[in-house]
Amino acid sequence: MSDQAILVTGAAGFIGFHVARRLLAEGRAVIGLDSLNSYYDPALKRARLDILCGKQGFAFEQIDLADRPSVERLFAQHRFARVVHLAAQAGVRYSIDHPHAYVDANLAGFVNLLEGCRHHGCGHLVYASSSSVYGANTKQPFSVDDRTDHPISLYAATKKANELIAHSYSHLYRLPLTGLRFFTIYGPWGRPDMAYFIFTKAIVEGTPIRLFNHGRMRRDFTYIGDAAQAVVQLVDLPPRDGGERAGPPAKVYNIGNNHPEELIHVVAVLERELGRTAVTEMLPMQPGDVTETFADVTELMRDTGFRPQTSIEDGLREFVAWYRDYHRISGSIPSQVSIVEG
Protein backbone atom coordinates (compact mmCIF):
# COMPACT_ATOMS: atom_id res chain seq x y z
CA MET A 1 0.00 0.00 0.00
CA SER A 2 1.46 3.36 -1.05
CA ASP A 3 1.62 6.41 1.20
CA GLN A 4 1.22 8.56 -1.92
CA ALA A 5 -1.77 10.91 -1.77
CA ILE A 6 -5.07 9.63 -3.13
CA LEU A 7 -7.15 12.04 -5.20
CA VAL A 8 -10.81 12.16 -4.15
CA THR A 9 -12.96 14.25 -6.47
CA GLY A 10 -16.21 15.64 -5.10
CA ALA A 11 -14.58 15.67 -1.66
CA ALA A 12 -16.97 18.33 -0.37
CA GLY A 13 -19.92 16.29 -1.62
CA PHE A 14 -21.82 13.68 0.36
CA ILE A 15 -20.12 10.42 -0.62
CA GLY A 16 -16.76 12.05 -1.32
CA PHE A 17 -16.65 13.60 2.15
CA HIS A 18 -17.29 10.27 3.86
CA VAL A 19 -14.80 8.40 1.68
CA ALA A 20 -12.10 11.03 2.22
CA ARG A 21 -12.69 11.02 5.98
CA ARG A 22 -12.45 7.23 6.11
CA LEU A 23 -9.25 7.19 4.07
CA LEU A 24 -7.74 9.83 6.38
CA ALA A 25 -8.75 7.77 9.42
CA GLU A 26 -6.75 4.89 7.93
CA GLY A 27 -3.69 7.13 7.71
CA ARG A 28 -3.87 7.74 3.96
CA ALA A 29 -2.97 11.16 2.55
CA VAL A 30 -5.85 12.68 0.56
CA ILE A 31 -6.05 15.54 -1.90
CA GLY A 32 -9.67 16.56 -2.16
CA LEU A 33 -10.99 18.25 -5.30
CA ASP A 34 -14.32 20.03 -5.60
CA SER A 35 -15.79 22.92 -7.60
CA LEU A 36 -18.10 23.92 -4.70
CA ASN A 37 -20.87 24.71 -7.19
CA SER A 38 -24.32 25.90 -6.12
CA TYR A 39 -26.43 22.88 -7.20
CA TYR A 40 -27.37 22.83 -3.52
CA ASP A 41 -26.39 25.11 -0.62
CA PRO A 42 -22.59 25.49 -0.75
CA ALA A 43 -22.64 26.14 3.00
CA LEU A 44 -23.21 22.42 3.58
CA LYS A 45 -20.30 21.59 1.28
CA ARG A 46 -18.07 24.05 3.13
CA ALA A 47 -19.10 22.59 6.48
CA ARG A 48 -18.03 19.14 5.29
CA LEU A 49 -14.83 20.62 3.90
CA ASP A 50 -14.05 22.36 7.20
CA ILE A 51 -14.04 18.95 8.91
CA LEU A 52 -11.69 17.48 6.31
CA CYS A 53 -9.35 20.47 6.40
CA GLY A 54 -8.93 19.91 10.13
CA LYS A 55 -7.53 16.41 9.52
CA GLN A 56 -3.83 15.66 9.17
CA GLY A 57 -2.93 14.52 5.67
CA PHE A 58 -5.65 16.43 3.81
CA ALA A 59 -5.19 19.15 1.19
CA PHE A 60 -7.87 20.81 -0.92
CA GLU A 61 -7.98 21.97 -4.55
CA GLN A 62 -10.97 23.97 -5.82
CA ILE A 63 -11.10 22.92 -9.46
CA ASP A 64 -13.89 22.35 -11.97
CA LEU A 65 -13.14 19.07 -13.77
CA ALA A 66 -14.35 20.63 -17.02
CA ASP A 67 -11.35 23.00 -16.76
CA ARG A 68 -8.89 20.88 -18.73
CA PRO A 69 -5.70 22.91 -18.12
CA SER A 70 -6.26 22.91 -14.35
CA VAL A 71 -6.85 19.15 -14.30
CA GLU A 72 -3.74 18.57 -16.40
CA ARG A 73 -1.64 20.67 -14.00
CA LEU A 74 -2.98 18.82 -10.96
CA PHE A 75 -2.10 15.40 -12.37
CA ALA A 76 1.31 16.53 -13.61
CA GLN A 77 2.10 17.85 -10.13
CA HIS A 78 0.98 14.83 -8.10
CA ARG A 79 1.00 11.75 -10.38
CA PHE A 80 -1.70 10.03 -8.30
CA ALA A 81 -1.37 6.25 -7.97
CA ARG A 82 -5.01 6.01 -6.87
CA VAL A 83 -7.99 8.19 -7.83
CA VAL A 84 -11.53 8.01 -6.41
CA HIS A 85 -13.81 9.97 -8.73
CA LEU A 86 -17.05 10.93 -6.99
CA ALA A 87 -17.60 14.40 -8.46
CA ALA A 88 -20.57 14.68 -10.82
CA GLN A 89 -23.62 16.70 -11.63
CA ALA A 90 -26.18 14.64 -9.76
CA GLY A 91 -29.96 14.44 -9.87
CA VAL A 92 -32.43 12.84 -12.27
CA ARG A 93 -35.01 15.64 -12.27
CA TYR A 94 -32.48 18.48 -12.56
CA SER A 95 -31.12 16.90 -15.74
CA ILE A 96 -34.45 17.41 -17.51
CA ASP A 97 -34.08 21.20 -17.49
CA HIS A 98 -30.28 21.63 -17.19
CA PRO A 99 -28.71 19.22 -19.71
CA HIS A 100 -25.52 21.16 -20.35
CA ALA A 101 -24.46 20.92 -16.70
CA TYR A 102 -24.39 17.13 -17.12
CA VAL A 103 -22.46 17.23 -20.38
CA ASP A 104 -19.81 19.52 -18.84
CA ALA A 105 -19.36 17.72 -15.51
CA ASN A 106 -20.20 14.10 -16.27
CA LEU A 107 -18.81 13.75 -19.80
CA ALA A 108 -16.14 16.41 -20.47
CA GLY A 109 -14.99 16.34 -16.84
CA PHE A 110 -14.76 12.55 -16.83
CA VAL A 111 -12.64 12.46 -19.99
CA ASN A 112 -10.32 15.12 -18.55
CA LEU A 113 -9.88 12.95 -15.47
CA LEU A 114 -9.21 9.82 -17.54
CA GLU A 115 -6.61 11.68 -19.57
CA GLY A 116 -4.87 12.74 -16.37
CA CYS A 117 -4.86 9.14 -15.17
CA ARG A 118 -3.50 7.66 -18.39
CA HIS A 119 -0.73 10.22 -18.91
CA HIS A 120 0.53 10.27 -15.31
CA GLY A 121 0.77 6.67 -14.19
CA CYS A 122 -2.45 6.15 -12.23
CA GLY A 123 -2.63 2.54 -11.05
CA HIS A 124 -6.38 2.48 -10.33
CA LEU A 125 -9.34 4.78 -10.93
CA VAL A 126 -12.50 4.09 -8.93
CA TYR A 127 -15.41 6.10 -10.33
CA ALA A 128 -19.06 6.66 -9.47
CA SER A 129 -21.76 5.32 -11.72
CA SER A 130 -25.39 5.02 -10.64
CA SER A 131 -28.24 2.55 -10.25
CA SER A 132 -30.13 4.82 -12.67
CA VAL A 133 -28.30 3.07 -15.54
CA TYR A 134 -30.75 0.17 -15.13
CA GLY A 135 -33.52 2.41 -16.45
CA ALA A 136 -36.93 0.75 -16.55
CA ASN A 137 -35.59 -2.80 -16.09
CA THR A 138 -38.18 -4.94 -14.36
CA LYS A 139 -36.07 -8.00 -13.45
CA GLN A 140 -35.19 -7.80 -9.76
CA PRO A 141 -32.67 -7.57 -8.23
CA PHE A 142 -30.53 -5.58 -10.67
CA SER A 143 -27.38 -7.47 -11.64
CA VAL A 144 -24.22 -5.94 -13.11
CA ASP A 145 -24.74 -8.39 -15.98
CA ASP A 146 -28.17 -6.94 -16.88
CA ARG A 147 -28.61 -4.80 -19.99
CA THR A 148 -28.29 -1.07 -19.29
CA ASP A 149 -28.82 0.44 -22.72
CA HIS A 150 -32.24 2.04 -22.19
CA PRO A 151 -31.68 5.01 -19.80
CA ILE A 152 -34.78 7.08 -19.06
CA SER A 153 -33.05 10.30 -17.99
CA LEU A 154 -30.08 12.31 -19.24
CA TYR A 155 -28.37 11.82 -15.88
CA ALA A 156 -28.61 8.05 -16.32
CA ALA A 157 -27.36 8.33 -19.91
CA THR A 158 -24.26 10.25 -18.79
CA LYS A 159 -23.51 7.62 -16.16
CA LYS A 160 -23.87 4.82 -18.70
CA ALA A 161 -21.63 6.83 -21.02
CA ASN A 162 -19.04 7.00 -18.22
CA GLU A 163 -18.99 3.21 -18.05
CA LEU A 164 -18.57 2.89 -21.82
CA ILE A 165 -15.84 5.52 -21.99
CA ALA A 166 -14.07 3.91 -19.03
CA HIS A 167 -14.17 0.51 -20.74
CA SER A 168 -12.65 1.95 -23.92
CA TYR A 169 -9.82 3.62 -21.95
CA SER A 170 -9.17 0.41 -20.06
CA HIS A 171 -9.06 -1.53 -23.34
CA LEU A 172 -6.84 0.94 -25.19
CA TYR A 173 -4.43 1.91 -22.41
CA ARG A 174 -4.79 -1.05 -19.98
CA LEU A 175 -5.83 1.41 -17.28
CA PRO A 176 -7.39 -0.36 -14.24
CA LEU A 177 -10.90 1.08 -13.74
CA THR A 178 -13.68 0.20 -11.30
CA GLY A 179 -17.19 1.63 -11.70
CA LEU A 180 -19.61 1.81 -8.78
CA ARG A 181 -23.37 1.79 -9.35
CA PHE A 182 -24.57 3.47 -6.17
CA PHE A 183 -28.09 2.71 -4.93
CA THR A 184 -29.80 5.58 -3.03
CA ILE A 185 -27.04 6.45 -0.57
CA TYR A 186 -28.35 8.15 2.60
CA GLY A 187 -27.21 9.22 6.04
CA PRO A 188 -25.56 12.07 7.99
CA TRP A 189 -24.21 14.97 5.91
CA GLY A 190 -26.45 13.88 3.04
CA ARG A 191 -27.59 15.81 -0.02
CA PRO A 192 -30.60 18.13 0.49
CA ASP A 193 -32.09 17.12 -2.89
CA MET A 194 -32.50 13.48 -1.81
CA ALA A 195 -35.96 12.22 -0.85
CA TYR A 196 -35.23 11.28 2.78
CA PHE A 197 -33.68 14.73 3.38
CA ILE A 198 -36.64 16.50 1.76
CA PHE A 199 -39.05 14.36 3.81
CA THR A 200 -37.27 15.22 7.06
CA LYS A 201 -37.27 18.94 6.35
CA ALA A 202 -40.98 18.83 5.43
CA ILE A 203 -41.95 16.92 8.57
CA VAL A 204 -40.02 19.37 10.77
CA GLU A 205 -41.62 22.37 9.03
CA GLY A 206 -45.11 20.86 8.76
CA THR A 207 -45.19 21.22 4.97
CA PRO A 208 -46.49 18.55 2.56
CA ILE A 209 -44.38 15.64 1.39
CA ARG A 210 -45.01 14.80 -2.27
CA LEU A 211 -45.12 11.02 -2.62
CA PHE A 212 -45.04 10.00 -6.26
CA ASN A 213 -46.65 6.76 -7.42
CA HIS A 214 -48.79 7.23 -4.28
CA GLY A 215 -45.86 6.32 -2.04
CA ARG A 216 -45.39 2.88 -3.61
CA MET A 217 -41.89 3.63 -4.91
CA ARG A 218 -39.25 1.24 -3.59
CA ARG A 219 -35.60 2.16 -3.24
CA ASP A 220 -32.57 0.13 -2.12
CA PHE A 221 -31.54 2.63 0.56
CA THR A 222 -27.82 2.17 1.33
CA TYR A 223 -26.30 3.71 4.44
CA ILE A 224 -23.36 6.00 3.78
CA GLY A 225 -21.11 4.21 6.27
CA ASP A 226 -21.59 0.92 4.43
CA ALA A 227 -21.10 2.54 1.01
CA ALA A 228 -17.95 4.42 2.04
CA GLN A 229 -16.43 1.25 3.49
CA ALA A 230 -17.04 -0.58 0.22
CA VAL A 231 -15.34 2.22 -1.75
CA VAL A 232 -12.31 2.26 0.52
CA GLN A 233 -11.97 -1.52 0.30
CA LEU A 234 -11.93 -1.32 -3.50
CA VAL A 235 -9.28 1.42 -3.75
CA ASP A 236 -6.44 -1.09 -3.42
CA LEU A 237 -8.13 -3.85 -5.44
CA PRO A 238 -7.52 -2.84 -9.06
CA PRO A 239 -9.00 -5.25 -11.62
CA ARG A 240 -6.47 -7.62 -13.14
CA ASP A 241 -5.45 -7.30 -16.76
CA GLY A 242 -6.33 -10.60 -18.38
CA GLY A 243 -4.80 -9.67 -21.72
CA GLU A 244 -6.57 -9.35 -25.06
CA ARG A 245 -8.43 -12.63 -24.69
CA ALA A 246 -9.76 -12.17 -21.15
CA GLY A 247 -10.58 -8.48 -21.54
CA PRO A 248 -9.33 -5.19 -20.11
CA PRO A 249 -8.78 -4.46 -16.39
CA ALA A 250 -12.25 -2.98 -15.91
CA LYS A 251 -14.99 -3.91 -13.42
CA VAL A 252 -18.40 -2.61 -12.39
CA TYR A 253 -20.03 -3.27 -9.02
CA ASN A 254 -23.40 -2.52 -7.45
CA ILE A 255 -23.10 -0.66 -4.13
CA GLY A 256 -26.42 -1.34 -2.45
CA ASN A 257 -28.15 -2.63 0.65
CA ASN A 258 -29.74 -5.60 -1.16
CA HIS A 259 -33.06 -4.74 0.55
CA PRO A 260 -35.46 -2.20 -1.02
CA GLU A 261 -37.79 -0.11 1.16
CA GLU A 262 -41.11 1.52 0.25
CA LEU A 263 -41.04 5.29 0.56
CA ILE A 264 -44.10 5.22 2.79
CA HIS A 265 -42.11 3.08 5.25
CA VAL A 266 -39.24 5.57 5.11
CA VAL A 267 -41.71 8.33 5.97
CA ALA A 268 -43.09 6.26 8.85
CA VAL A 269 -39.58 5.76 10.30
CA LEU A 270 -38.87 9.49 10.03
CA GLU A 271 -42.19 10.28 11.71
CA ARG A 272 -41.22 8.06 14.63
CA GLU A 273 -37.74 9.55 14.95
CA LEU A 274 -39.00 13.13 14.71
CA GLY A 275 -42.09 12.57 16.87
CA ARG A 276 -44.40 14.17 14.34
CA THR A 277 -46.82 12.89 11.70
CA ALA A 278 -46.13 13.94 8.13
CA VAL A 279 -48.39 15.93 5.84
CA THR A 280 -48.44 13.78 2.70
CA GLU A 281 -49.58 14.54 -0.84
CA MET A 282 -50.11 11.44 -2.98
CA LEU A 283 -49.23 11.94 -6.65
CA PRO A 284 -48.81 9.80 -9.80
CA MET A 285 -45.46 8.84 -11.32
CA GLN A 286 -43.33 11.58 -12.85
CA PRO A 287 -41.01 11.54 -15.89
CA GLY A 288 -37.57 10.03 -15.39
CA ASP A 289 -38.46 7.99 -12.29
CA VAL A 290 -38.47 4.21 -11.87
CA THR A 291 -40.76 2.34 -9.51
CA GLU A 292 -38.13 0.18 -7.82
CA THR A 293 -34.38 -0.27 -7.38
CA PHE A 294 -32.89 -3.42 -5.88
CA ALA A 295 -29.17 -4.21 -5.92
CA ASP A 296 -27.63 -7.64 -6.40
CA VAL A 297 -24.31 -7.23 -4.54
CA THR A 298 -23.09 -10.81 -4.98
CA GLU A 299 -19.94 -9.85 -6.89
CA LEU A 300 -19.05 -7.09 -4.43
CA MET A 301 -19.45 -9.48 -1.49
CA ARG A 302 -17.36 -12.13 -3.27
CA ASP A 303 -14.48 -9.78 -4.11
CA THR A 304 -14.35 -7.62 -0.97
CA GLY A 305 -16.27 -9.42 1.78
CA PHE A 306 -18.70 -6.46 1.83
CA ARG A 307 -21.89 -7.00 3.83
CA PRO A 308 -24.49 -4.25 4.33
CA GLN A 309 -24.59 -3.66 8.09
CA THR A 310 -27.14 -0.91 8.63
CA SER A 311 -30.93 -1.21 8.69
CA ILE A 312 -33.10 1.62 7.42
CA GLU A 313 -34.28 2.21 10.99
CA ASP A 314 -30.76 2.56 12.39
CA GLY A 315 -29.54 4.60 9.42
CA LEU A 316 -32.39 7.09 9.57
CA ARG A 317 -31.96 7.40 13.34
CA GLU A 318 -28.35 8.46 12.71
CA PHE A 319 -29.45 10.87 9.98
CA VAL A 320 -32.14 12.51 12.12
CA ALA A 321 -29.68 12.92 15.00
CA TRP A 322 -27.26 14.66 12.61
CA TYR A 323 -30.07 16.77 11.10
CA ARG A 324 -31.18 18.00 14.52
CA ASP A 325 -27.61 18.85 15.46
CA TYR A 326 -26.72 20.55 12.17
CA HIS A 327 -29.90 22.65 12.14
CA ARG A 328 -29.86 23.17 15.92
CA ILE A 329 -33.26 21.59 16.48
CA SER A 330 -33.87 20.48 20.05
CA GLY A 331 -36.88 19.17 21.94
CA SER A 332 -40.11 17.78 20.51
CA ILE A 333 -41.84 18.93 17.32
CA PRO A 334 -45.62 19.62 17.61
CA SER A 335 -47.66 16.86 15.96
CA GLN A 336 -49.72 17.43 12.84
CA VAL A 337 -51.78 15.02 10.72
CA SER A 338 -52.92 15.53 7.14
CA ILE A 339 -53.17 13.44 3.99
CA VAL A 340 -53.90 15.03 0.64
CA GLU A 341 -54.77 12.87 -2.37
CA GLY A 342 -53.67 14.32 -5.71
Low-confidence parts? 336-342
Element-by-element helix/strand order: EHEHEHEHHEHEEHEEEHHEEHEHHE
Strand order of the largest sheet: 3-2-1-4-5-6-11
Radius of gyration, in Å, reads 20 Å
**Structure classification:** alpha/beta
Taking the alpha carbons of the first and last residues, their distance comes to 56 Å
Q: What is the overall silhouette?
A: globular
Largest sheet, in brief, is:
7 strands, parallel
State the total count of DSSP E strands.
14
- Give the proportion of residues in helices: 40-55%
* Strand composition percent: 15-25%
Specify the number of helices.
12
Rounded mean pLDDT is: 92
What does this structure look like?
- This protein is an alpha/beta fold and 342 residues long.
- The chain is built from 12 helices and 14 strands.
- It starts with 5 loop residues before the first strand and ends with a strand.
- The model is unreliable at 336-342 (pLDDT under 50).
What is the element layout, followed by pairings?
Elements: E1 6-9, H1 14-25, E2 30-34, H2 42-53, E3 58-62, H3 68-78, E4 82-85, H4 94-97, H5 99-119, E5 124-130, H6 154-173, E6 177-182, E7 185-186, H7 195-205, E8 208-212, E9 218-219, E10 222-223, H8 224-235, H9 243-246, E11 250-255, E12 261-262, H10 263-274, E13 279-283, H11 298-304, H12 312-326, E14 338-341
Parallel strand pairs: 1-2, 1-4, 2-3, 4-5, 5-6, 6-11, 7-10, 8-13, 13-14
Antiparallel strand pairs: 9-12
Helix pairs in contact: 1-2, 1-8, 3-5, 5-6, 7-10, 10-12
